[in-house]
Write a structure and sequence with these properties.
By secondary structure, the chain is of the alpha+beta class. Helices cover 68% and strands 13% of the residues. It has one domain (18-109): Arc Repressor Mutant, subunit A (Orthogonal Bundle).
Length: 110
C-alpha cells in the first residue's frame, strides 16, 4: 500500500466508523454544542482526530432523526443532549463495538 493510502486509512478509516458512537458517548456525559464536541474529540485524541463541521453536523442530525439525541437552541448555539432511547442504544453500541474489537484483535493476532 503506498504511504499516502496507508496514512489515509490510518487517519480516517477507523475514526469515521466510530463518529456517531463517539458523539453519543460524549453527549451522554452532558449536553454539548457541535463546536464543543469537535474540540472535545480533538483534546481526547491528543489532536490526532480533528473532525470537521462537515462530518460532525450531519452525524448529529442523523442522531436527532433517529431519536437518540435532542437538539435545542441556546442563543445562537444548538445544544445536543442524549435521550432515554439514546442511552439504551449507547449500551448496545458499546457492547457491539467491544465485541468487534475482540474479533479484530483475534484476526490481527493471526
Amino acid at each position: 500500500m503506498p504511504p499516502e493510502q496507508q496514512a489515509s486509512f490510518q487517519r480516517y478509516g477507523f475514526k469515521v466508523g466510530f463518529l456517531k458512537l463517539t458523539l453519543l458517548t460524549l453527549v451522554s456525559k452532558g449536553p454539548l454544542h457541535g463546536y464543543a464536541l469537535m474540540k472535545r474529540i480533538e483534546r481526547l485524541t491528543d489532536e490526532e482526530w480533528k473532525p470537521s463541521p462537515g462530518s460532525i453536523y450531519p452525524a448529529l442530525q442523523e442522531l436527532v432523526q433517529d431519536g437518540l439525541v435532542t437538539c435545542n437552541a441556546q442563543g445562537r448555539k444548538k445544544v445536543y443532549a442524549i435521550t432515554p432511547e439514546g442511552k439504551d442504544a449507547l449500551v448496545v453500541a458499546i457492547r457491539e463495538a467491544e465485541e468487534a474489537i475482540k474479533r479484530l484483535n483475534r484476526i490481527l493476532a493471526g
